[in-house]
Design brief:
Largest sheet: 6 strands, antiparallel
Number of strands: 57
Distance between the termini: 68 Å
Shape: globular
Length: 710
């Protein structure tokens, strides 16, 4: 349910190689504020239709987790459909959306057996998925999966499994120590097909899948909802419901040793802490039931730095229709903690945490504004950051949150509307909020490097994959001239035909919206081969033109590994048309005088002279016209329908023309059926119908009668 975004992962390098006691990460500058956003919904697509769940059935939120991976935003939950209001499509439990537009990506459609409750990007570009899935595309996987975000398929070779008991993963987080921490309610974990008993929490290598079998925490007498490893101490924090407390810290070296159990709730009752998050500043925040959020200082005997409670406040609200509720998730982005909650009322802060009350006027805290589902806090001090204060409405409120690579904030949960009353857009349980004026499509990054290898007449262009690209555009210049388009591919390799001159290539990434990155200049490498002897040219060659098809044939030539086919039109230059190892080449016809040439090419890529082909044009059978054509008034006075009997030609279409008051003949339409509807005006009209098969047409058939409009 939580992600440590890329800007925060830089803190990992401060911890690399350290052993024993860790020290606090110093703050060199004031923390950056939260992302300022408009309360404007920037995506029409969202989630719909609540699906089944065996462990979170009492929560109505459709969206539970949202993460970015492979240039896409993934939303997980217990939904069955995705929708934009006008169209609803079945895609249960996990769906992918465009980062730049929020549009649902219909080519990522994995088949899951149950809800997704947690998502976490992997350092190797994969995406971890946790929940109640059981199956993935028909394969039994348990509660945990690693997938390829480009396809939605399981990651090749990955065999780490989590299952047993309730068999649910509720939270995952990448620790600054490089381990992936996984928490929930499960009894068994397995890597390399060696199932072993565990209790609700494990950690593993995110690249290899190897589980750290030296660190298996015992049962703490309850369920685990959240997990986070410290940046400054040998501590791993667990949130949930345990014997005696709802948040505990255990040793990251010895899992049997409890480091901290001094968490105190804001109400002497009961509750579950749904999430916990450590930060690079040596602070740790826990959130959960009784409407409470708590920030502690790891390096000052876990003294409380800040506390927050949400509810109705009679001093600032005219009615209690909008009231606060439980916190449910924390997301760390840069220097900001985004806490999502079932809260639509008022917010109070203080130390200790203001007491939970149905009226915050009685809580003893300081009023710090109204709230709408998701709140931003300074990760170092815990103070609320009012730069992030969008107005939303709903029921269950937010669960997962994400600050995407374009700066827009995504929130998954139970949010029905975005924007102030009277100016709201649908929330659809998946909200996308962007900076003022932002949120439009952004260009892709572009390949990092590119290499063009010239070997004889062949140029092989290769480049680094760009996860933000849908495809790539290749361009070339000769002798420093203009960069001309050479091709488009979804691959990271492009084969081009060389020519004399200094060649330079660029590769540009292109997004699904058609936006292009800055071009990446390719380094050119020339492979020098010793000259081999040229093969014989084909002795003869014949191009047979038959309708839309041209069949070029020639006899085999000595020394030829394959053949290059060229074509000119109406006496123009000869252009490359194809290459084949066969002695036959099929081309498409065009309306011009065509001349073909064929050259042999050796295995060493040396070409022979070109052999000009003779041309043989097969007679074209005339297209049979329609037998008759009738014009009938169907919606007096100006609606008419033109009709005719079908012809027997396979693939036939019909082209309709008309003249007005005996004037010029104008095209009106093309249909595959045998009727055409039209509207008249004050004039006389005569219609004609032609049969079209491929590029050929029949003689026109004149329709009767001539009709007059008004």
């Amino acid at each position: 349910m939580r992600s440590i975004r890329r800007s925060v992962l830089a803190a990992t390098c401060l911890l690399a190689g350290l052993a024993g006691t860790l020290t606090a990460v110093p703050s060199a500058a004031a923390p950056a504020p939260a992302v300022p956003v408009d309360d404007v919904q920037r995506s029409n697509w969202g989630l719909a239709t609540e699906g089944p769940s065996r462990v979170v059935a009492n929560f109505d939120a459709l969206g539970w987790a949202v993460e970015e991976a492979g240039g896409k935003v993934f939303a997980g939950g217990k939904f069955l459909d995705v929708t934009n209001g006008a169209s609803t499509e079945r895609q249960p439990f996990l769906a992918a959306f465009s980062v730049s537009s929020g549009t649902w990506l219909s080519d990522i459609t994995p088949d899951l057996g149950g809800p997704v409750l947690s998502l976490e990007p992997s350092p190797d570009g994969a995406l971890f998925v946790g929940g109640e899935m059981d199956e993935w595309n028909g394969q039994t996987i348990g509660a945990f999966a690693k997938i390829d975000p480009a396809t939605g398929d399981l990651w090749p070779g990955w065999d780490t499994r989590i299952f047993g008991g309730t068999s649910v993963v509720r939270d995952m987080s990448m620790g600054p120590d490089g381990w992936l921490y996984v928490a929930g309610t499960f009894t068994t974990a397995s890597d390399n097909q060696n199932p072993t008993a565990v209790t609700n929490v494990i950690r593993l290598d995110p690249t290899t899948g190897d589980i750290d079998w030296t660190w298996i925490p015992p049962s703490f007498g309850g369920t685990v909802w959240g997990v986070s490893a410290s940046y400054t101490q040998n501590t791993v924090y667990l949130a949930g419901r345990f014997d005696g407390t709802d948040v505990i810290g255990i040793d990251s070296v010895n899992p049997n040793q409890t480091v901290w159990d001094g968490f105190v709730m804001n109400y002497p009752c009961c509750g579950v802490m749904y999430d916990v998050q450590a930060t690079p500043f040596g602070t740790v925040m826990a959130v959960g039931e009784q409407h409470g959020a708590y920030l502690y200082d790891e390096n000052n005997a876990f003294a409380q730095l800040a506390g927050h409670t949400t509810s109705y406040d009679s001093r600032y609200q005219a009615s209690n229709i909008r009231r606060g509720g439980d916190y449910q998730d924390i997301e760390l982005h840069g220097d900001t903690l985004y806490a999502s909650c079932h809260c639509w009322g008022s917010h109070s802060s203080g130390v200790p945490t203001p007491t939970y009350s149905s009226n915050l006027a009685n809580s003893g805290g300081v009023h710090t504004g109204l709230v709408s589902s998701t709140i931003a806090y300074d990760a170092q001090t815990g103070a609320r950051d009012m730069a992030f204060d969008p107005y939303m409405a709903g029921d269950v409120g937010g669960w997962g949150a994400l600050v995407a690579s374009d700066g827009c904030v995504w929130i998954a949960g139970g949010i029905n509307a975005v924007g102030p009353p009277g100016n709201q857009a649908p929330g659809r349980d998946l909200v996308r909020l962007c900076e003022p004026g932002g949120g439009g499509p952004v260009p892709p990054d572009g390949p990092a490097t590119c290499l063009a290898t010239v070997s004889g007449d062949t140029v092989t262009v290769t480049w680094d994959a760009d996860p933000t690209a849908q495809d790539y555009v290749i361009r070339r210049s000769v002798n420093g001239g203009t960069m001309w388009w050479r091709g488009v591919t979804t691959d990271t390799t492009f084969i081009d035909v060389g020519r004399d001159g200094d060649l330079a290539y660029t590769v540009t990434s292109r997004s699904p919206e058609g936006l292009q990155s800055a071009p990446t200049d390719c380094t050119t490498e020339i492979v020098v081969e010793p000259p081999p002897a040229a093969p014989d040219a084909p002795a003869t060659c014949l191009a047979v033109i038959d309708g839309d098809t041209v069949t070029v044939t020639w006899p085999a030539a000595d020394g030829a590994a394959d053949y290059i086919i060229y074509r000119s039109a109406d006496g123009g230059p000869q252009f490359w048309r194809g290459r084949t190892a066969d002695t036959t080449f099929i081309d498409s016809n065009r309306n011009a005088e065509l001349v073909y040439h064929v050259a042999s090419r050796s295995a060493d890529l040396v070409r022979s002279d070109r052999t000009e082909c003779g041309v043989d044009v097969e007679p074209v059978d005339p297209i049979t016209p329609v037998a008759q054509c009738t014009v009938q008034v169907v919606d007096a006075p100006n609606g008419v329908q033109v009709s005719w009997p079908a012809v027997a030609e396979p693939g036939a279409e019909y082209v309709i023309y008309r003249t007005v008051d005996g004037g010029n003949r104008f095209w009106r339409g093309r249909v595959s059926g045998t009727t055409f509807d039209d509207l008249l005006r004050d004039a006389s009209f005569e219609y004609e119908v032609e049969v079209k098969v491929g590029n050929d047409r029949s003689e026109p058939t004149t329709c009767t009668p001539v009709v007059v409009g008004s």
